[in-house]
Design goal:
Blueprint (H helix, E strand, L loop, with lengths): L3 E6 L6 H10 L3 E6 L10 E4 L19 H11 L4 E4 L1 H8 L6 E3 L7 E9 L15 E8 L3 E3 L2 H9 L3 E5 L10 E5 L5 E4 L16 H9 L5
Parallel strand pairs: 1-2, 1-3, 3-4, 4-11
Antiparallel strand pairs: 5-8, 6-7, 6-9, 9-10, 10-11
């Protein structure tokens, strides 16, 4: 049976169909989950995609954290359910306290959109468990608030616990320690700013994102 993956949709989300298509390419049965949902226990994994949840009012992800689905997402993650937040989804996960740190405006206050090379820094997350550390991937970014920041204490903890999942090869936005993605202590909650679904077809310029999504859904993963 194909793994069932929910793709959360808030008012303002705009990458949900891209994520569904990419998940289907790696053998998953993907379904859209409206932000009013209160149960996710029928799913094998959940993705919070990119966009502008609730219009990014106040700041990206600040209102989305109060949507009913976030309570269900927290419960799902607490029992080990795989959760991935992409771009705006990463911002939502930090606002909800599922991941530490925050995303602030890019260096030079520039919106960034285009291909970006990242290196897999850790294989202990659900998104990278099938990818050897040191692997370089070509993904895509599309953000204005994409610069990751955290306290020195949090950064030390992320490093000590091997929780930096992806690092930029050439830092495009001023993210601390070149961080492009992190995970929680258990490795089942991951946030990343680059879009793997926008690197899921040769027509998009890269298929490297499929490696990450295969890892997430467990297709071909021991």
């Amino acid at each position: 049976m194909a793994p069932r993956v929910g793709v959360v949709v808030f008012p303002g989300t705009n990458c949900e169909h891209d994520v569904v298509l990419a998940l289907e390419r790696v053998g998953a049965d993907a379904e859209l989950v409206w932000h009013a949902a209160t149960r996710l226990d029928h799913l094998d994994a959940v993705v919070v995609p990119g966009g502008f949840a609730h219009g990014d009012y106040l700041r990206p992800g600040a209102l989305a954290r109060f949507s009913p689905v976030m309570g269900a997402l927290s419960r799902f993650a607490a029992v080990g359910g795989p959760v991935v937040g992409i771009c705006n989804g990463f911002q939502v996960l930090t606002e909800a306290g599922l991941l530490p740190g925050a995303l602030q405006k890019n260096r030079d206050l520039r919106f960034m959109c285009g291909p970006v090379s990242v290196t897999v820094a850790s294989s202990r997350s659900v998104l990278t468990r099938a990818v050897p550390a040191g692997t370089e991937l070509l993904l895509a970014i599309n953000n204005f608030d994409g610069s990751y920041v955290c306290t020195p204490e949090t950064l030390a903890q992320l490093r000590d616990e091997d929780r930096v999942v992806l690092r930029y090869c050439q830092n495009p936005n001023g993210s601390l320690d070149d961080i492009a993605g992190i995970c929680n202590r258990a490795g089942n909650v991951v946030g990343l700013m680059p879009h793997p679904e926008r690197a899921s077809s040769e027509l998009l310029g890269s298929t490297d994102g499929l490696v990450l999504l295969r890892s997430l859904v467990g297709v071909g993963v021991p």
